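User: Hey, quick favor. My workstation is busy. Could you predict this chain's structure for me?
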Amino acid sequence: MRKRIPDFEEELEVERVEEKESLPPRSEIHRNKEKKEKFKMNHIFVRVLTFLFILLPISILWYTDKYIQVKSDGNNAGKSAFEVIFFDSAKSESEATS
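Assistant: No problem, here it is.
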């Protein structure tokens, strides 16, 4: 039993030394760390997308306005949405008194 105790102590010391040697300092790890290369998107791509998103609603409004205008001119050349009523007030006053 006495032989086991020194063996255990020696193993414990060896483990402690290995633990100390196995991990390098944190600063050393971060110093040697390779930087990742990021994918850099060109600003031209972002500008084109922005331009398209601005142009899309403008073109839709312009197209619908022109389409409605052409369609209304072709179908209802002489028609109007409202009926025009001519009212002669002098004639109606004479009818009301008689």
